[in-house]
Amino acid sequence: MRLGQWLIALLFAYFLIQVGGSLIADLPLLSHRPPQERFLDTARVGQLERQLQPLQQRRDQLQGEIERLTERQLLAGEATAREQTSFDNWRAARSATEQSQQNPEVIARARQLDGLLRQEQQLRAQRSQLEADLQRAQGELAAPQGQLEQLRRQARQRSELLAFGIRLAFVGPLLLLALWQFRRYRGSDQWPFVWGFLLFGLFAFFVELVPYLPSFGAYIRYGVGALLTLVVGRSLIRWLNTYLLRKQQEQAAPQQQRQRQIRYEKALQTLGRHQCPSCERSLPRQEGALPNYCMHCGLQLQRHCGGCGSQHLACFPYCPSCGLAAEVAEAEPGVNPAAVPSP
Q1: SS3 for 82?
Q2: Which of 56, 40, 59 minimizes the C-alpha distance to 148?
Q3: Residue ranges of the alpha helices (H) in the chain?
Q4: pLDDT tens digits for range 85-114
Q5: Own/partner long-range contacts of 127-131 (Cβ < 8 Å, ≥24 apart)
Q6: 303 by DSSP, 3-state: which?
Q7: CA angle at 233 for the pair 232 and 237, rounded to the nearest 5°
Q8: 37: phi > 0 → left, psi -120 to 50 → alpha, else beta; which?
Q9: Is the dihedral of CA 105, 109, 112, 118 positive or negative?
Q10: Cα(295)–Cα(298) distance, rounded to whole angstroms?
């Protein structure tokens, strides 16, 4: 029965989730995030774009000139290196003559090499000047680009906040209603539907709403987490305190009252794990048998039948040997089981 009831709760939650998903998919305000262009200051954006256009063109022009100049500088360096190697080889192979350094051909080739070196130095200086101009151009671009990015970031934040607000207006009341129903009706005979609606509300909040939390507002994410932690933590502490108080009251009650308060299925499960059904503490194993009383809280675990005298678990409603009801044995000790009508 318990498994069947939980199955009903899960099926109810599943179909509610499907209905909610279909509703969100069909409503434009919920299925699509508002476009960022709705929140842009178009006049200011246009002004900044017009201001950026000549600066970007100047930057692109400088980058192109630097690339071309770099290529020329590379070619000039290669030409200089080749000429230097050729000149050194030519001088080494030349037969020694008097005043060979004053030879017109030597002087001409040395001047040619000097010209290549000067050309390479000029290209290097021009490149340094262009790189300095490019750095200044990028500095001029930084301010309007930063303002434009800020405007777009603000538009994106407003779009995310509006999407979050729309979904919160749809999901928030569902979650509050689910929590209110759970608090008030979770102990009724309709609890599977209460749990199913709660699961639906939690799914809608954590799956349909949380992904739309504004990315810019980390305080919103952490604030929601702190609020949920506070609510769940207070509920857990309250439940633990209630549980401890109930256990104290159970241990202070008489034996018969404690036996009646313990659910039969729970008693069988806990005793099967060698635990006390009342205080849930571990029991020692005495050659596979349970002790007669719990050494922690004093609850009677085994007793003798008032009719046949056999020993059995105290939680049994009937004696497994003679079938005598526990109420009859407690009311009339020593009764003859043959005189008791069969149940």
Answers
A1: helix
A2: 40
A3: 2-26, 28-31, 42-93, 104-185, 191-203, 218-252, 255-261, 264-272, 326-331
A4: 777 766 666 654 444 555 676 677 677 777
A5: 127/66, 127/69, 127/70, 127/73, 130/62, 130/65, 130/66, 130/69, 131/66
A6: strand
A7: 120
A8: alpha
A9: negative
A10: 6
| DSSP code for 253 | S
191-219, pLDDT tens digit by residue? 889 999 989 988 888 777 766 666 555 56
Indicate the length of the chain as a whole number: 343
Contact 314, 291 (CB under 8 A): no
| DSSP characters over 157-223 | HHHHHHHHHHHHHHHHHHHHHHHHHHHHHTTSTTHHHHHHHHHHHHHIIIIIIGGGS-TT-HHHHHH
CB 120 within 8 A of CB 83: no
Burial class (CB in 10 A: 0-12, 13-18, 19+), 166: middle
Q: Is 334 left (phi over 0), alpha (psi -120 to 50) or beta?
A: left
Q: Whole-prediction pTM value?
A: 0.46
Residues 6+ apart with CB under 8 A from 293: 299, 300, 301
In this structure, what are the phi and psi dihedrals at residue 215, rounded to the nearest 5 degrees? -70, -25
| 57, amino acid identity | Q
- Picking from 67, 63, 83, the residue whose alpha carbon sits closest to that of residue 123 is 67
